[in-house]
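Co-fold these.
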Amino acid sequence: MNNSQLKSALLRLGDDALILGQRLAEWCGHAPALEEDIALTNISLDLIGQTQSYLSLAGSLFEDGVKTDDELTFLRTDREFQNLLLVEQPNGNFGDTIVRQFLFDKFALLRAEHLAQQTFNSEAAAIAAKAVKEIRYHADHSSKWVIRLGDGTTESHDRVQKSLDDLWKFTGEMFISDEIDRAGVESGFLPNLDDLKKKWDEEIDNVLGEATLTRPEDCFMQTGGRTGIHTEQLSFMLAEMQVLPRTYPGTSW
Amino acid sequence: MSDKKNNWPLWEVFIRSRQGLGHKHVGSLHAADAEMAIGNARDVYTRRQEGVSIWVIPSDAITASAPEDSEALYDPANDKIYRHPTFYVLPDEVNHM
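Predicted complex below.
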């Protein structure tokens, strides 16, 4: 794995966390209960913290000079973001947010556990070791809500089943390997995504079973996020997220 | 707040801030059951490293003393200063007395 590939792999890690963290922050002041408002924004802050670490590390690997995490966050265009399509999907209703979180958390936890163990890059291992503890809580939180909503009332069951059906088409992208993934696996830095999918399938099925939800059939899977081809949702998000630093370059509190 | 149909039950939250100290009442919150109450308490009350252990108790399980009984309950202790250990010198190493 060369420097440029490592940089891309770190951007993907950072961008997944950044975009999902920004999405969750939109719940601030709007969640169904005060307690859940704080839970979702806590998770958002955990993810933004992971973003800062991963993007700072990625920023040190640019050949044309070091880029800060803020520059990478606020001054890249949509085509330069490499996050999964899943994490940029709108919050929708509370069930949509929880299912999106659940599908991602289970993937992110397995990925972070590998990153924390690998010896190819010790800085990334340290970031991941801290992230594992956070994501373990996120996965616990989202799994419990999936079970609560799925195995709740008829209405909550039907609505969360619809969330699952709607978002399923974005799950395939997590497990597609490209050149960067293959180089990452070869050097030991990244996990083998086929192995990861087996574990993910098992964990998803366990929770869905307990939640009395039906796992959707594998359909046509949406892809493109890893190469910068995003759904239109990302542009709207970036417009809001980046407007201040773009309008007032270099401004500070 | 007493609309039971549309509100989760109320829970009282107790946090142990450090090993060796007792759990202390920090506030209350709503949750559907005890497990969710622990999760919510973690999110609401331990964000700034306030605790190492959490208790939650259904608020309606608490029996409180009545304010109108306070004379009978507390005034008799007023003139019994010999119950305070103020006549001893404590070594510096003894904390939390």
